[in-house]
Amino acid sequence: MPVAHVKAGSAAGKRKATGIGPARRIAEELRAQNERFSAAVENMSHGLCMFDAEERMIICNRNYIDLFRLDAKVMKPGIRFFDILQHSVDIGIASQSAAELYAVRKPYIDGAKPSTYEETLADGRIIVISHRPLASGGWVSIYEDVTEQRGAEDELKEQHRRFDAALGNMSQGLLMYDADGKMIVRNQRFLELYKVAEADFPFGTTHRDALERLLELGIYTKIDVDSEVAKTEAALRAGKMQSAYRYLADGRTFLVVRQPMSGGGWVVTFDDVTERRRTEERMTHLAHHDTLTNLPNRSMFRERLDQALSEPKVAPLAIFSLDLDRFKAVNDTFGHPAGDWLLKCVAERLQRCLRSEKDVVARFGGDEFAIIQSNVRGAADAERLAKRIVEVIGKPYRDKGREMHVGVSLGIALYPGDGQDADTLLTNADMALYRGKSEGRNIYRFFEPGMDAMVRERRALEADLEAALPRREFELDFQPILDIASGDIVGAEALMRWRSPSRGLVSPEDFIAAAEETGLIVQLGDWALRKACSAAAGWPRDVRMAVNVSAAQIKSGGFARSVISALAFSSLPASRLELEITETVMMDESDTVLRTLRQLRGLGVRIALDDFGTGYSSLGYLRRFPVDKIKIDRSFIRDLDKRDTAAIVRTVIGLGTELGITVTAEGVETEAQLGMLRKAGCGEAQGFLIGVPAKASEMSRLLRSQEKLRQSG
């Protein structure tokens, strides 16, 4: 209610100013003072209510009425305190009865002492009441709504709790410094990481103190404290994060990161990255070295060559490109493990042939090697090394009573005469190697400007091939696969096509080999896999997609992830994907190949052995590798009218039946061939008679037509 209704003010206002001048002045002064008091009370930010000794209200301000949602018409001077409490109960603002509320306040009224207490209203608000007795009896109360304040305090307490919980459960150690550079926060993980006590790093410790203490305790090896402090201060002034590795005396490595805070000071985190660093070092080594021979790989070789060519005074160099002769025969005869052992022996012999510590021998992959010969005084020096390599590599290799023989062909390019940069030198060394291999075995050839155009054409093909994928020059055709018994199309094989703007349609026989030699087959294979899965996802649910996979793809180490990614992206069920692998893949019995094939088959992906019967030991592969399908090579189907060939085909079909393996015949071109295969019990057929390779849209139309025939039949 307005304070202007105060009794004293009203009486003074009504009384006429009669008599002498001083009485009028007193009345006016009293009126002015009353107005000032009223204005002050009404403008208070809190509620105010004053009671006399008989517990009747003298005055109250608007904030008091609003705070308790009271009716201004009820709140007239003279209303009893208990009646106000009852009014608050009647309007539903009080959370207790009037008697209970009065019982709480009565001790404060009778005690006539200043006091403060709280009341929680029915709507959840919290009101702090300050009770102050008056000298003439009665009291005055000040009411403050502290709901938001308490909420903020509770939120702050919750934030502190969360902060403490986060600090206590961090995997990293943490220190926090204030704007004066004094430590104000330290978590338990920091003490655990450094194996120190709280007393070693009390609050208030400076960055310099902490570094010096770690040195004193023998935890850090020798570091320049002044330099470290200066670098930290410079980074903080610039507002930049600073990170550094710390190497501890016990062999561990910590990553220390300092992050400036907006209000001044900074936070430091400590992370034990010992195993991560060791893994990174191993990964770096693996990234630059061949895993089989531990020689530098192509990447490392290129770095060393670039480094040698970038020196201010580059000494003459000789670049050797090497390729083993008859290595495939060793693999075919003695198996892949023997081939690996032989490559290790070759690597050791090549290293022994080098004369300088600056010389580098690297393995590029397979049976390809390369050498950098430093400080070459002329072609004669390079020729001497080439002759020594041919002689040393050509000596017999004996292992477990077996004797193996391989030779080596070399191509040589000389710097600076044969090229000024790494690419040119390597290209010319390769051209010389190709020229040598075309002329025979166990020989070396120096690069000559007039080398065969065939070599240059091959290099041009490889360059076009490398640019073709980002230019989207590749496409897929699909050749249908027939279930011979039902006559239904049950799948299709994805066939890669390269339509070059300059070369036209390039035969797969030409570009697949080049892609395998350059390593591009991995990217091409991944592209084909994704494209094929996406196409098959739109086909009927019982139609499978067959995709050819090269040995290089499976050996890459990430092939299983590529398959899983392609299936996930296309939503194609794994059971509808069929990977066709050749004997070349089967010949590699490394852990990577075996693990990859088993992992994929465990996911439900089917494995088919392609070109069955053309290799040396296909039956052995069926025993070691659990395949789902074997594909009889088209060369057998072409000669199916010959008695001995027909017998072989029938045997393979019978073998598949006994092993529970699907048999697919490739290259079926005549009804006679299909009839013979049907009579022999062959499961599937593929070839021009069944359908020529076609675009995805044509394949989809064929499958839709088949689906309609099924539904109508």
Automatic annotation (TrEMBL):
SUPFAM superfamilies (alphabetical): EAL domain-like, Nucleotide cyclase, PYP-like sensor domain (PAS domain)
Residue span, GGDEF domain: 315-449
Pfam families: EAL, GGDEF, PAS_7
Lineage: superkingdom: Bacteria
Name assigned to this protein: EAL domain-containing protein
InterPro entries: Biofilm_reg_signaling, EAL_dom, EAL_sf, GGDEF_dom, Nucleotide_cyclase, PAS-like_dom_sf, Rev_trsase/Diguanyl_cyclase
Domain EAL residue range list: 458-707
Database matches in NCBIfam families: GGDEF
